[in-house]
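Task: complex structure prediction.
Instruction: return structure tokens for all chains below.
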Amino acid sequence: MSDTKTVISYREALYQSMNTALSESPEVVIMGQGVDDHKGTFGSTSNLAEKYGKERVFDIPLSEEGNTGIAIGAALNGLYPIQTHIRNDFSLLAMNQIVNTAAKYKYMYGGHFEVPFLIRMIIGRSWGQGAQHSQSFQSLFAHIPGLVVIMPSSADTVLESYNYAVQKYKGPVISIEHRLLYDYNFNSNYNSNSNSQFKENPFTSRLIREGSDITIVATSIMVIEAQRVSDYLFREFKIDCEIIDLHAISHFNKEMILKSVKKTGKLIVADTSWRAYGVCAEISRIVCETDPSMLKAPVVSLGMQPTPCPTTKKLEDLFYTDDYTFTKKIIELVKGKNHNIPMTERSMNEAYKNFKGPF
Amino acid sequence: MSDTKTVISYREALYQSMNTALSESPEVVIMGQGVDDHKGTFGSTSNLAEKYGKERVFDIPLSEEGNTGIAIGAALNGLYPIQTHIRNDFSLLAMNQIVNTAAKYKYMYGGHFEVPFLIRMIIGRSWGQGAQHSQSFQSLFAHIPGLVVIMPSSADTVLESYNYAVQKYKGPVISIEHRLLYDYNFNSNYNSNSNSQFKENPFTSRLIREGSDITIVATSIMVIEAQRVSDYLFREFKIDCEIIDLHAISHFNKEMILKSVKKTGKLIVADTSWRAYGVCAEISRIVCETDPSMLKAPVVSLGMQPTPCPTTKKLEDLFYTDDYTFTKKIIELVKGKNHNIPMTERSMNEAYKNFKGPF
Amino acid sequence: MISLYKNLFYQSLRIRMVEEKIIEIYPSDKIQSPVHLSIGQEAVAVGICNNLLKTDLLYSSYRSHAYYLAKGANLNKMFAELYGKVTGCGKGKAGSMHLAEKSVGFMGSSAVVASTISHAVGSALASKRLNKNQVCVATFGDGASEEGSYHESLNFASVFKLPVLFVCENNGLAIHSTIDQRHSYKIHEHAKSYNLKSTYIEEGYDFMKINSLISETINEIKLTGLPQVVEIKTYRYKEHVGIGDDHHVPYRSSKDFDNWKSVDPLIQDKTLINEFSEKINAEIEAAVNFAEQSEFPADSELFTDIY
Amino acid sequence: MISLYKNLFYQSLRIRMVEEKIIEIYPSDKIQSPVHLSIGQEAVAVGICNNLLKTDLLYSSYRSHAYYLAKGANLNKMFAELYGKVTGCGKGKAGSMHLAEKSVGFMGSSAVVASTISHAVGSALASKRLNKNQVCVATFGDGASEEGSYHESLNFASVFKLPVLFVCENNGLAIHSTIDQRHSYKIHEHAKSYNLKSTYIEEGYDFMKINSLISETINEIKLTGLPQVVEIKTYRYKEHVGIGDDHHVPYRSSKDFDNWKSVDPLIQDKTLINEFSEKINAEIEAAVNFAEQSEFPADSELFTDIY
Ligand SMILES: Cc1ncc(C[n+]2csc(CCOP(=O)(O)OP(=O)(O)O)c2C)c(N)n1
Ligand SMILES: Cc1ncc(C[n+]2csc(CCOP(=O)(O)OP(=O)(O)O)c2C)c(N)n1
Ligand SMILES: [Mg+2]
Ligand SMILES: [Mg+2]
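Output:
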């Protein structure tokens, strides 16, 4: 095993996985609104139509329900379709096909059919996206048996999951990507480390930081925030956070979470969506059904405020969790409310500050 | 306050609420597939078209997304539409309108618009409904700020909620009714007891049985099952269950639940849907975020097995919770696994046994 | 060699007799799943499927018994499925509303109206991309054409020039709702606005006529690779779901019913009925027997085939 | 009295100048929300709204600045909204994509393509049931007509005979995708299959022509109570979202652009531009000022107006 590390952006990882899918698997087609235009789904499908032909990478009409049914029918007859929704919000129009047919195709007919396909859905944040361009529906999909729901938080989780989905997995996979991750750079071991367990089993969670004081379960971009906050807390106050990247919202590693919470006794869940009936709820259920006494303090959950997303920046900043709150909650959980640690109101992270829409 | 009790069926309560809506509120229309036919939405809208005219009670095309948008537009211009989905499953086709527009109309435009309407959705169980006629999407809707989501479990919760929704509430209400409740008879205090707190505040939970040994939080038909099981356990073994009818899936009474769990230390949640990202998850979150130490034992959740619903009775019986399991779980929680209480495999409840589809 | 007429008659009669058997069995509660009978509509399924190869893919709705049989799937497995047995085509998990049989190209039947129309389009896309030379068929009711995905499917198939045959079985009803309450358009006229060829047959009881039109249509689709729509007027004899008659309910006229029956070969052609009944009955008895004798799925089957 | 031409010109120019002001302000990042400009398409909004009463209800898409203004909503409140201020028409919660103003019957503008078309149908249903004598208008793009709910909306409006005007602003593009990649149908032809009247105007820059057709159409709708469709060809000058030009990208030809500009009154009629610019500028400056001076919503606003 070589230890050569490469640095690639999330966008490059997406592009690589799309490129690999097309080059390695002749049955792959990428069908989505604008996948062949000059913006190429925020750069993740750029020039692939030119490279592989418009028969394999093509634009489709604005017909989400129909298009999803078409992907399912195509999958049933030998293609591997990759679909894209440039906003997660639009996937609601395809909910019937995703939930009533894709998720059930294999089971409902007694195991005789398979529907292998990938739906990429993008979630956003910041810069006035407003109520209809800011939603994050992982818990809706993960409630439904039959769907694999993932939220890649890094270049390698993209590469592992997408390559596996296309090459090995035979059912529908829903992947929710965060637009603000696209410009992040990541250390990637994917190509050097050919034996990674996650290549064979990507639909699970990752322990990405070991620590003893508190367990942070995070999804998507909140994993990055968790890392930044944890680094800061360790550097400044020797608070040692354990971070689990939940990744597989429908198939997360329960044992990993339970083991961690047993060790730390403290749990904070940071997700990109609303908290009610969301990721924190599900993690709480797992803990409560196993042994609630492992919790030595109340659980804290971070997510969107229980409102539609307002457009104005002033309110939008309150709508989302900032890392000041994240930091504060961790300190309070670990050190108690009277912790005496000086906290200055810290700014939002760089990505949100520098990001300028529209996207 | 008179204490005259009347006995009415769930179906009659539905019918009464529809009739009251039409007679008291000239802006009400009932628009739904088959609402004016001789079966009248399982009897809940029978003859209303004849009584109030086909301008007010009318059939509509098979166009769930469009129809929901039409209801929203109608609500914005002065009507109060009542829509029906004879299966909850079909509402997925309307998800975009429900989540992206109805739930956000008031907020997104700064509070200047209101969308008062009621969507009735029916869930089923038993008799080979299969994968696409058996789903129960309360948690999907309740995840979304802006929606009131209720699951009436009795005649009075129907009357309280629907009359209030139509006469007082100004936003979208989603009500999930259980088909197998339609034939149940209930004691009704609605007409005699004119001061019920629930007439003024129906979108909350109800403590329907006080007890000290365990807290049961139940939804929809599981409330009936909880009552039957609790009566049995008290009669036979003096196990004393407290039952909370969650009712308002989006607006349940947290304090009521926390108070009860603090008292009993034991919690069992019985819901009509899948457990992952479902009602038990959300209740667990509330407990965990408040004080997990109130739990003296692991939480138990009952719901559908994590599979699509199989059609054959043999597997369907395993897919749903039966009251044998319900009873057993309670005894184990209260008395411990080595409880020595003799348990015979009890049959499914009468409704499921006697129910013959198709519906 | 048996004549075309006799062959199509035989197939149609077989479907009717199978469904009449279901009616007979139903009160016993051995079939615990909602059934949507095709009685009166058999000629449509037979006229279509007679022109399809096993490799041509067909998708239908919950009203699918006729298609299952006409496409050549196994009768034993059908009764076993209705009985909820593990030997059924869907291992008992499917029931009446979700019959399918991959080996004969019967690809699915959904209980959500219109939801399989787009599947046929997608399969045609795959056929074209992978040069499989299949025709893919979507059959659906008049009600289904009201769903948005019907519009989306027609448009996609036409823009992408896909070999799809859309067949609307227009029985004039969606449950109890008549078509004039629901449609502003004529199905076969509306379809033309998507720049595709569309035809209409009034005599949905006439399997010969349907067969010959579909034969021509399929040939054209194979030749041109372009989608077409066929609308066929037909008549549902039984109630929407279940086994009862419901002409006593005033939502439709029993005069229409009488007219339809008076031209229905499966009622009128007593000679052929007599000729074929015995053989068909024997096959049905054997299938029912097979179903009765079969096992229910093991408990563990609840958790298989999800992912 | 000012002539009709001058009046419509003034309104169109005002919209264009407002959007040009947005372009000017945008780099400052004071407007933090995606803007979909109507530059090039103003005549459509003006030609429609000139024929509507305040009580007639209009729904549009995220590309709604033009409709907001043409329908008579307040310019101060618009800039304040773009600035995210509490004095905005949506208290800052709406932003560019969700302008609306109840008092003038501008009922909503959604960022989900096609999602408001059915709202107009529903409002027309209410109008009919409650005898309000309103016309309800849905405006939407060519891309929106691909969504299933468009089909559902046309059908419903026609079956129920509702006073709805559907106006498709056909700019030939959905983001960067050209119409021939997406449409098998001609919008105004397809609409006719729903048994409703449908017309087409090629000259989407010509507010006089649009105005006169819409005037006739609205009169007919008020008279008959029946829905109609109007398709208007138009041209989007700017990129789909944002303030840039993108004719350097080869997804569309700059020759078309040049042709369009050569007939665009808002470019060609220098006399009127000169006559009106000052007045309009003053109004815009005042509005920007109003926006600048206004307050952001209080934190507590986050939690109001949900239920
Ligand atoms: C999306 C959806 N909406 C409503 C229903 C309820 N439903 C079942 S069958 C049916 C009528 C369908 O009519 P049609 O498409 O003409 O088929 P037919 O039953 O006449 O063969 C309806 C409304 C459903 N199953 N799916
Ligand atoms: C349901 C949905 N699908 C996709 C999108 C992404 N999107 C935003 S605008 C647009 C193009 C719409 O084109 P058209 O309806 O012609 O309107 P135009 O922008 O040309 O005015 C698309 C695809 C969306 N907002 N909503
Ligand atoms: Mg029909
Ligand atoms: Mg356009």
